[in-house]
Amino acid sequence: MGFLDSVLGPLFGRTRLQQPDMDRLFKLSTVESSLDMAELAPAGRWAVCLRPVEGGEFAAVDHELRALIDLSCRSRDFNSSYTISRDNLGYTWIVFEDPKLADGVTLVHLVGSTLQEKGYGEQLLAAVFRFRQEPPESGDAAPRYLVYNYKRGRFYPFVPQPGHGRDNATEFRIGAALGSLLPMDADLTRWYPLWDCPL
Amino acid sequence: MQRRLHTDWQLQARMAFTMLLLALLYLIFAVVLYRAGAGIGLTAILIGGLALVQYYYSDRLVLLTTRARIVTEQELPEVHDLVGRLAAMANLPKPRVALVQSPMLNAFATGRNPGHAVIAVTSGLVRALPTPELEAVLGHELTHVRNRDMAVLAMASFFSTIAGYLTQVLFYTQIFGGGYGGGRRGRGGDSLGVILLVSWVVQIISFFLIAALSRYREYAADRGSAILTGQPGNLASALMRISGSMARIPTQDLRQAQTANAFFIVPAAVGREGLVELLMTHPSLEHRLNQLRRIELELAGRPGR
Q1: C-beta atoms of B1 and A119 within 8 A
Q2: Residue A136 belongs to a domain with what CATH number?
């Protein structure tokens, strides 16, 4: 957001949501070979989280989006399925199941750019990618997420623990390991949690 | 690529015009103070300094006077989650969350900048509102944080605070006459009487201007909530629920902090139905609902006006 939006905007009480940064998302596909350094392995679930808008226009976009995803999944031979759901905070999650990380990134990007084309780019909150621990420890199937914050164009790790807690030590390690390969958010106060993430 | 909600240029114009008038008023006042001589000037600077200190510690002061307590995620998970998501959407650091034990339904935001912000809710609000409405209210408060309304209104009130203090002091020194008494001339030749008059006029005019500015910022916060959540209907029903409850619940709590009242989503002192809106810091419920209705139409793709 330029000077006009970030300074003059608030001065005059104008609220404008940040446009999403689509490009940096693709960096994730380039780190596939380095994931084991961060003790991560893809867990085959990827999602886009957005805030739906009231009104007929958005509902129409929803239909179009589903049709588009169906089409792409079939045409590109993606071995993937998807679900669209709402969480208890009113956000919409489009969750893809696909064993390959690269496919996941492509699908997520597809959804994002379609929404942006229709003018709803500002509603995008985050893209979430699920991983698991590698090498897998017995009985530990706990998810480790890499979250891409569309508004800031940065990634950050999110490792939830039972009881509304976060495994900060692991998150820190992941952040350090991937920090040179991915645009990680240096500001820890922006590592927003996504509790009860349906991935 | 379309933007979903168009800027309300009328609101923008009114806000800009009000701020311009305030700036002009204060400029004139500053000139008068400057010409008034060292004694008055020094007093003005001292009061100004106090006002700045009060602003700097605004978050702590407001929390103290309203008896709000900072709460952790474990204590109030739903509110924290909502505030967190909204902050992510607005690209702001997440404000702290505070709780006021009160049956009244209300919320406010405070803090000198988004990095030191606090959003407070009453226990009554958390109990009464369903999640979507609670989110709308929190979106409204977060917009206040983002728009730095605390800072804007503090700046707007800065000189009126000085004017108010000077009015009082000079009034009493005029009455008790003697040493300082009427007719003593300052450096520029203005008598204390003139300064008293000017202070008084500045105070009155700025009162109306600041009230107007506050109302426009409230409209802006309502718009902001609608944009952040994409659901103006939620805010509309929340406002109706809050306003409806205000009339029934006895007005005992939350009256301590008069300044904090300006940032309550619906002013605590409801029931003054006959008062002219010019004096109010918040627009009437009806006007707020009208704006939300227009926003809803715009979002549905049908321009409201």
Answers
A1: yes
A2: 3.30.70
Give the pLDDT confidence of B56-107 residue by residue, as tens digits.
Answer: 887 788 888 888 999 999 899 999 999 999 999 999 999 999 999 988 888 9
* CA B216/CA A154 separation, integer angstroms: 35
Number of domains in chain A: 1
Q: Is A166 on the interface with B (CB under 8 A)?
A: no
Does residue B27 form part of some domain?
yes
Q: Do the Cβ atoms of A14 and B74 come within 8 Å?
A: no
Amino acid at B238: A
Q: What separation in angstroms does the CA of B227 have from each of A40, B80, B171, B206?
A: 37, 20, 48, 31
Q: Is A18 on the interface with B (CB under 8 A)?
A: yes
For residue A52, give the nearest of A24, A23, A89 by alpha carbon: A89
Report pTM: 0.79
| ipTM score above 0.85 | no
**Neighbouring C-alpha atoms within 13 Å toward the C-beta of B256:** 11
Residue B278 distance to chain A (closest CA, Å): 20
**CB-CB under 8 Å, A152 with B85:** no
Beta bridge partners of B122: B100
Taking alpha carbons only, the member of B110, B122, B121 closest to residue B61 is B110
| A1 within some domain | no
Instruction: List chain B residues with CB under 8 Å of A161.
Output: none
Q: How does strand B96-100 pair with strand B118-122?
A: parallel
Where do we find the tokens 């060292």? B38
CB pairs under 8 A between A and B: 117
At A96, the amino acid letter reads F
CA B219 to chain centre: 12
pLDDT for A135-184, tens place per residue?
Answer: 777 766 789 999 999 999 999 999 998 877 888 888 989 998 998 899 99
Segment B138-164 shows an average pLDDT of 89
A114–B contact, CB cutoff 8 A:
no
Q: In this structure, what CATH number is given to the domain that contains residue B242?
A: 3.30.2010.10
Burial class (CB in 10 A: 0-12, 13-18, 19+), B132: middle
In terms of residue numbers, what domain contains A118? 20-190
CA–CA gap between residue B260 and residue B251 (Å, rounded): 15
CA A26 to CA A30: how far, in whole Å?
Answer: 7
Domain count for chain B: 1
Residue A55 contacts B, CB cutoff 8 Å: yes
Note whether B259 and B62 are within 8 A (CB): yes
CA B59 – CA B118 distance, rounded (Å): 7
Report if residue A25 sits inside a domain: yes
To the query of whether residue B75 is one of the catalytic residues in this protein, the response is: no
A164:B77 CB<8 A: yes
